[in-house]
Amino acid sequence: MRYTIVSILAAIPLLFGCAVGGVSPSGSASLPLQRCDGANTVNCIINYDSGRVEEVRPTTDVYPQLGLAMSGGGSKAAPFAMGVLKRFVDGPSGEQWIYKTDYLSSVSGSGYAVFYMYYKAYELAQHEYRYDPAFPGLQRFFVDARRMNSNKDWPYFVDLHSLDLKGANDVQSVAESQDGCTRLSVQNYAQPNGHPPPPGVIDRHYANYQGWVECYQDILMSKHSAISTSQRDRGELGGTFASMVTESIVSVPLHYFANLLFDWRKPFSPSQYDYLFGIERTYAYMPEAGTQLPVGPHDQRFQRMAKELTFADLSVIYTGDEAVTKATVGGYLPKWVLQATGASGNIGLDLSRAPYDLATDVFEITFDEFGSGRYGYVRGSPELVGLTVPLAVLASAAFADTAQRSLKYSRAAVNALLQGLNVRWGFDIPNYNESNASRVKHSFLIWPFYFLDDDVTSPTGPTIHLSDGGQSGDNLGMISLLRRSVQNIVVVAGENDWHRDPKSDGFVSLSSLCSVNYYLVQHGYTMIFEADPRDPGTGPTTPFDLSKRCQWDANHRSISIPNALASSANPTKDTTNITPFNWRRRVWVADVVKLAPGVTESLTLNHVGPAVEYTPKGLDTVKVYYLMSALDQKAWIKVAREWYQAAPEGVSRPVRVCRGAVKGESDGLTYSCGLVEYIHNTMISSVPEGEDRMSPEERIAAEDGGKWVFPQNSTAFTTYSNSIYLFRAYRDLGWLYANELPDVSDRMATLLKREPNQRPPGLDGIYSPQAMESSAR
What is the pTM of this model? Predict the structure, then answer.
């Protein structure tokens, strides 16, 4: 006890009197910020409470044409997003879709994969890597880590050797070899004449990048991931959680003193640090020659990155000199918008379980604009309030936080548990509407008086609390693109949205999609999809109107598509639920259409929220392309059986070799070889013991009736206990579905063939990233 008191007293000079808020503003930032007008054109608040967008636009088009919206879902959403990014980066010269995309928004887990891509692009822009004509631009970072010894034609998954009589493909990753994760390193693969390898020859050096991410999927652990098809040894999890709990308990005295007795909002949560550095270690670090592996998440380089990697550093990859950018990065990347949730500063009193309002509580962070409808949007660098790129990624992904409203448990109980154990992944930034002096005054107030100085219902108060972007209700990242009237939005939905039901196969509620549609309904619009996602697309279809399918729950807390078996109000006549395993639309296409007069009022009758201040223009011409981490289980089982046929005794058959993708013999659709193998393993693992006594018919019935989890594994499970195989399965699924985009409509096919992005206009003078960053310092 004596040592605890001494440590608290020693820390007081470092804490007391400082401006409240876990992240301090830039040293020279003068808060509060003024409204933008003729005299204040930068580092100012744009049209306070309006929601209009005034920023450096990545295009001269009246409306941006193409955007990627990537969902939350922890380490389950990250590989699915990685697969889509892989397809956008891949392809012959001139096809790379990523350089033809205007905006990219990310929420929570998808931000891991997006961070991976943008940080690699930043490294290229810094001339850290020599140009390689075989893999120009970003392609080298997305080369599959599977064995690639004999490939000559650069498909995406290569050198899948022959099937033996049991039907096993050789798709082993370099990370799966003995001690592979501890021996990954960059080596010199230059030819004797000094030239790089010829096109089509893939060195293990390039496989290291994706191999490294595979190896370190367990972002909260110091060791690399287990090589398993389903879940890792839970014995190691016990050690991980015991260590984290111990760290949290040790930090509790400081936390209670600084954040409960006083209201200083200091980020003393050890698990938050573990989480942040784990994201950096897995998705930003690249193994270098001579490095001693494995690298723990608390290496000093990650701490430096968290403090020093700014948005001005990153912005050069979509605003830099044209010749340099194209020669290093390969072209201009989309403008990245990170979505967090901007909640009341003092969440100790904010115990509401009502949904956040998407028009006011989605907090956007990009290099030249940040903010929300509640607090106002700032034209200026996020460094004004102390936000670096890694901290923005952390804010967007801070699920374990007291601002959590999406759990079914009591908000007060969740808040008390997380506060009491010092487990908070979100953090506070200075409220740019309030002066620095007001924060110093607040820091002298002791419990419970500081509650009187922080209104939870208004934009006043010393700080803004940032937490997981999915908690706002938009776990898909669509709101920032709709605000900008992006005309074609590819939604990468890798979130956990499967409701298990003991009376049925469960159902997919599509609650995030319904929540975004409610935002549209408030503005007088709705999304109408071309068909039910269970429709195979071979016959007549019935439009799927979200304004008619989405419903409030019994307590009016969330909006979702209900369980069809349990809801007589659902107008559909279907007797089966929408599940992750009967999803037949690889790309589910919708149009945003205007609602008939009077419909908006009836649909919003039970909703209490702020009035709609501003409706973006051009919404009625928006098209949505929805990629869901779900599949048609029956179709995949059929294809797996086609490729894993055992030869009859005494009969030989040609050996099948799968190079990247195969066509289903019955439906003609494309299937990923790696996923066929994973599905086959899932099928046979569902057969109970005693299979040697089963007839062929009984075995088939057991495989068909197996209870699958993939592709809707728990977000929490995959974040703290992912595996190499599971990462690859989600990535392969995202890559496969993104491949279908050019075929879904002539409009999308034309977009993906257009000329690459040009240097964004409006970058001269005070609007340049460098000038804005300088003014923030």
Answer: 0.90
